[in-house]
Amino acid sequence: MARKIESLMLEGPVGRLEALLEEPEHGEPVHAVLVCHPHPQHGGTMHNKVVYRLARGLRQTGAVVLRFNYRGVNLSEGEYGDFAGEVEDARAALAFLRSRYPQLSYSLAGFSFGSRVILRLGCEPESEAKRLIAVGYPTRWPDLEEVKVCKKEKIFIQSTHDEFGPKEQLTAMVAELPEPVSLYWVEAKDHFFAGALDDYEHLVQELIWEPAHE
Asked: What is the three-class DSSP state of 12?
């Protein structure tokens, strides 16, 4: 039987949000993951190649994955919300995902700007996220204070030559975060994992859990 792929328009805080829901290639989903894309004012969409590879790698672990476009991106209504609005868009998308799969535990994943979105949302006290997967974290943005006290499992995946999250800066930042936290490097040419997208996707498959069945 072909895996389920649905193109959706979700109800967001300021209008409809374009989304794509994909179940695993084989078997029933054992976990749910919301994936957030890069900065909407710099060409970021849910079809970004790093986001696509992240979603595909997660599906290989048995996850059902929901990607979506923030307000004002492609078919999503509204306009840029200065980060706070995009966090609220992610919250609405997560609510949909949890309502569709209420029996599954969930995690949050995001690339670049999207990694900041999921850390903000996932580190809220009421969050029930199992894991927070931050890919290509941009260290030159102001620190997220809530992450400094966040006890959720935090997984950082970064290119060795990320111009927006240099190795020295990210290593120092992660070293100050509370456990559980881990940092993995992919030998790549730039922020977008140029020349190493296959290695990056394989790392996602290998790192991200034995699926949680609680």
From this structure: strand
Q: What is the mean pLDDT of residues 37-56?
A: 98
Contact (Cβ atoms closer than 8 angstroms) between residue 129 and residue 107: yes
* pLDDT value of residue 213: 37
Question: Could you tell me the sign of the dihedral formed by the alpha carbons of 51, 53, 56, 58, in that order?
Answer: negative
Q: What is the mean pLDDT of residues 143-170?
A: 94
Cα distance between residue 71 and residue 68, in whole Å: 9
Q: How far apart are the first and last CA of the chain?
A: 27
> What pLDDT was estimated at residue 2?
52
Q: Which fold has domain 5-207?
A: Rossmann fold (3.40.50)
Which among 214, 205, 195 has a CA at the least distance from the CA of 62? 205
Q: What tokens appear for 203 in the block?
A: 């790392």
Residues sharing a CB contact under 8 Å with residue 76, sequence separation 6 or more, in sequence order:
12, 15, 16, 17, 18, 68, 69, 70, 89
Domain locations in the chain? 5-207
Cα 214 from Cα 204, distance rounded (Å): 22
